[in-house]
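Page 42, continued from yesterday. The earlier attempt failed because a stray header line got pasted into the input along with the sequence. Redoing it now with the clean sequence only.
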Amino acid sequence: MRIIRNALLLTLFIISNLSSSAQEQWGKYAHLFTVPNTYTAGYSSHTIKIDGQANEQVWKDAAWTSEFRDIQGEHMALPTYPTRIKMLWDADNLYIFAELEEEHIWAYYDKQDMIVYHENDFEVFIDPDGDTHNYYEFEVNAQNSLFDLFLDKPYRNGGKPDIEWNAKGFKSAVYLDGTLNDPTNTDKKWCVEIAIPFASLSTDGNFIQPEAGDIWKINFSRVQWQTEIIDGKYTRKTSDDGKLIPEDNWVWSPQGVINMHFPERWGLIKFSSEFPDATYATFDLPEEELLARHLWHVFYAQRDYRNENKTYCNDLSKLGIQTNGKENNTSFSLGLNASGNTYTATLKTNDNLMISIDQDGLIQKHTDK
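This time it went through. C-alpha cells are written below.
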C-alpha cells in the first residue's frame, strides 16, 4: 500500500507541475491542452468472435485502458460507474471491447440510426488521417442498436452529419451481466464488442489501411442519464422546471470541454505488430502532435478574436502568440496570413517540416521544399 500511495503522490505532483506549466504556456486555453491518452493496440492473428464477451486468449492478453473520466478533465468528480476498454487489430478490422459497470441497464431504441445518445450509450470516434475532418462516429446502446454517421468537419466549423452513411461490415454484440429494462433488480455491467472494418471508413471506396507503427486519432465516450421509474419504465429525469437534467459524459481521453466534436482533443491509437507489456500500453506523443498544438493555440485565439472583431487577425502578436519557439529540441517558426473570413497559419521547423491550419481547423502536414 505504501508503494501505491507513494506512486499516487508522485503522479499528483507531476500532474500539478504539468498543469502549472500548461497554464503559463497556453493561458486561458490551458484546459484544451491537457495531454491526450494513448494506447498501443496489439495485432491479432486469431479469429475473434463478436459476441460481447471477449473470451479469446488474445483479448485476455490485451491491456485495459485507464478508466474513463469526466469529459471536462481530471479536475471533475470521478464517474459514478467505471468504464474501460481494450483494442486489437488485424489486416481487416479494428476491434474494441468496452466494459461498462452499471446498476440499472436500460435501452428502448431498437432500430439502426435512432438517436441512441438520448439513452445511455457507448460511443466511438475515429479520424484515420488526423486532420480533424472526414471522421466517423459510432454509437451503440444496451440493445445493440447502432447509430453511425460521417462528418466532413466538426459542427463548430459548419460540419453537417451524414446520418444516411452506414459502415459496411460493421459488427457489434452486447453482453449483459444483469437484465435489460428491469427496474426491480440491480445489475452489474454491460459489455460491447465491436469490429470496424477499415474498408468501411470511407465515403467513396478509398480508405486508409493501417500498418504497424501508424497512429490514428480516436476517442470513446459513455453517455449516462439520470433516470426515474415511471409506469415501470426507466425515464430520463427532469428538473423542477420540466427540463431534462443534462447527461453525464464520461470519456477515455478528456476533451477539456463538453463537446466530443473537438477531434484535435481525441486520444491516439498506435497499431503494433506485437503486444505491449506496459500496464496501459501507453506511448509518448509524436513530435508532430506536440508541434501541432501551437497551431491549435492560433485556432482558439483566432476564434475568440473573430467573435469580438468580426474578422480574423493577421498579427500573431495581437493574439498573444510568439512567432518562434521550441518543442523539446525542435525549433520552429509560426507564420500567419489572414484576410477577412479566412486565414492560414503555418508552422515550420528547421528540418523542413511544415504544418498548417485554416479557419475550419483543417490541419495538414507536409514537407516544405
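Notes: The helical segments are 2-26, 57-61, 287-309.
Reminder to self: strip header lines before submitting.
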